[in-house]
Amino acid sequence: MIGHNYAQALFSLALDEKLDEAILKDLQTVEKAIAPEPDFLRLLSSPNLSKAERCGVLDTCFRGQVHTYVLSCMKLMTEKGCARYIPDVCRAYTDLYREMHGIVSVRAATAVPMTEEQKQRLTKRLETMTGKKIILEPVLDPGCLGGVRLDYDGLRVEDTVRHRLDSVRDWLKA
Questions:
Q1: Virtual torsion, Cα 164, 165, 167, 173, nearest 10 deg
Q2: What is the pTM of this model?
Q3: How far apart are CA 51 and CA 74, in angstroms?
Q4: Given this model, what pLDDT does residue 161 score?
């Protein structure tokens, strides 16, 4: 919830300034930079460093790399003892941006990798069905056995061999 609140404030500011896409890209940069370094967030929360020193770390790492609004938000969170929620802000902002712009992220699980043509056809079909822009995230899941399982907007659409076998098994048990 804390991350969402900061993201909402940053998103409102970005919309007012017509910087929503630029801020999104900068937050993606931040997320990619800190994801492999969990100690970085611990450093920003360390009581052994003053608030000024912790904010200095952010300046060293991100000044000139991200918009000042993003840097200021991270510094504010660090000063308030909420640095651990920075990844949550990145994700929540992305969700707000996608909702505002009619973009849906679809996770497509298959047993074998999809070809580029299959990805394009699936994306086009989903865009036609939903009326939204689709960002397809292919995932390999050998448990599917065959077919595809789609997860988006809290929904699951499954047309896999595993699902069909489970349905037959349940039908036979009844």
A1: 160
A2: 0.78
A3: 12
A4: 66
User: Could you tell me the sign of the dihedral formed by the alpha carbons of 132, 133, 139, 142, in that order?
Assistant: positive
Give the pair of three-digit tokens for residue 86. 């920075």
Q: What are the counts of helices (DSSP H) followed by strands (DSSP E) for the chain?
A: 8, 4
Which has the closest alpha carbon to 77: 61, 88, 67?
88
The pLDDT tens digits of the residues spanning 58-84 come to 999 999 999 999 999 999 999 999 999
Positive or negative CA dihedral for 108, 111, 112, 118? negative
Rounded to 10 degrees, the C-alpha dihedral 66/42/92/74 comes to -40
Contact 152, 159 (CB under 8 A): no
Q: Any idea which fold 2-98 has?
A: Peroxidase; domain 1 (1.10.520)
**Every domain of the chain and the residues it spans:** 2-98, 102-173
